[in-house]
Design a protein that fits this description.
Layout (H helix, E strand, L loop, with lengths): L5 H8 L12 E6 L6 E8 L6 E9 L2 H14 L4 H4 L4 H7 L8 H21 L10 H8 L17 E7 L2 E6 L8 H12 L7 E6 L6
Parallel strand pairs: 5-6
Antiparallel strand pairs: 1-2, 2-3, 4-5
Helix pairs in contact: 1-2, 2-5, 4-5
The structure holds FE2/S2 (inorganic) cluster.
């Protein structure tokens, strides 16, 4: 089977909506801890209807990232921000007829950049209440942390043994040893997703997996 679908190759070779909107209403630059790549999204949003009237991206990432960013700009353009923020990375990958598992994090990067741009716009327009970090919210964030090799969420892979949120401290127990080859990568991804939350003071990750014998 070919590594990349025809659609991925098509969007990589002819990406839609590339560039930067000069007088953008919202912008976000996101980086992927998995590979160090970056993606910038700029948006024009109609204040009354909340419709995304224009969207552009600049990717400093791989072919999968370019293809995913391209497809999400098509999926988001003409939709309201409320609809666009429901676009998930799996949906974006499906829209491209799939991505190789090791490239799923590139779709996460694209979708995260879109979501942060929208979130910033909503914050500036007083549309977001400071939502407290609940266990549900933490779980939602952890579902977007992937095993870099399989492209499957650490939650689905049952690597998340337990977690707790108390007094601004998030404690996470993972079924990995500290020496595991992906331990530092997964830990960086978790910090990326949780450290910036306004009421989170500390994220403690415990590697409690048993060493393989
Ligand atoms: Fe970095 Fe795809 S975005 S490898």
């Amino acid at each position: 089977m070919a590594l990349y679908s025809k659609k991925v190759i098509e969007h990589f070779k002819h990406p839609r909506n590339v560039g930067e909107i000069a007088d953008a209403d919202a912008a976000a630059m996101e980086g992927s801890p998995a590979c160090g790549d970056m993606l910038k999204i700029t948006l024009k949003i109609d204040e009354k209807t909340h419709v995304i009237t224009d969207i552009k991206f600049e990717s400093f990432g791989c072919a999968s990232n370019i293809a995913t960013a391209s497809i999400i700009t098509e999926m988001a353009k003409g939709r309201t921000i409320e609809e666009a923020e429901r676009i998930g990375w799996k949906q974006a990958a499906d829209e491209l007829d799939g991505l190789p598992p090791v490239k799923m994090h590139c779709a996460v990067l694209a979708v995260d950049a879109l979501k942060s741009a929208i979130e910033q716009w909503k914050e500036r327009h007083g549309l977001v209440e400071k939502e407290p970090t609940t266990p549900d919210k933490v779980l939602r964030k952890l579902r977007n942390v992937l095993n870099p090799l399989t492209g499957v969420s650490i939650v689905r892979m049952q690597l998340l043994l337990d977690f707790d949120v108390a007094d601004g401290i998030v404690t996470i127990d993972l079924d990995l040893t500290p020496e595991h080859k992906f331990a530092s990568h997964i830990s960086e991804e978790i910090h990326e997703k949780l450290d910036h939350l306004w009421d989170v003071k500390e994220v403690k990750i415990n590697f409690v997996g048993k060493p393989e014998v």
